[in-house]
Design brief:
10 strands; alpha+beta; 3 domains; globular; single chain; Alpha-Beta Plaits; Arc Repressor Mutant, subunit A; 4-stranded antiparallel β-sheet; 245 residues
Length: 245
Amino acid sequence: MSGHSKWASIKHKKAATDSKRGKIFTKLIKEITVAARHGGGESEKNPRLRTAIDRAKQANMPADNIDRAVKKGTGELEGVTYEEFTMEGYGPGGVAIMVEIVTDNKNRTAADIRTIFSKRNGNVAGAGSVSWIFEKKGYLEVDKKDVPEDKIMDIVLDAGAQDMQAEDDIYSITTDIKDFENVKKAIEDSGIKVKSAEITMIPKNTMALAGDKAKQILALVDALEDSDDVQNVYANLDIPDDIAE
């Protein structure tokens, strides 16, 4: 199968660093709260909430934290009202960047994001400038050690997956949004653990960067992800493995 999901796997490696910095819980709580507010507090009927809770469990978030976040979203507990919006821009080398944001103060956060772009050789662009480069997809990861490649490929293809790649120590699987839950269930029903599962943005094409330009764009992405208000950063970037690490 063909396609590109390298940036998605890089994002997951970087997420491990975020966890060490103690920021991942804050981002997950916001996502759970917003998902519950928009789709209700029953995860069985709310796919976005179900995915957010799964990610929280993978990050070892205590069940009490998850429950409180859900109740704040449904209004059972008092909580902050969050607003979702997206900012788009370009980084060093002309790399397209999308930033998904959840905040309680849009004006403050928008100003902060503009500052981060400008300080790191990037610039914010208007709505729609780069969003056309990305497609919303389901994305899953399975550890290679857990299953042979031919077996997992048969499972995900039969369930409707669009793409699977073997990368380092994982299989990365891409699906259409409508098939995401079916593919995830098929893997789990086969007794195989899903290492990671989320709805994400996959670039239709990528730009290859190396050397200083690659390091600069990663520094920009790191700075954006370091903001508590930034949920996700997407870039149509292809960089050498030694720099990605």
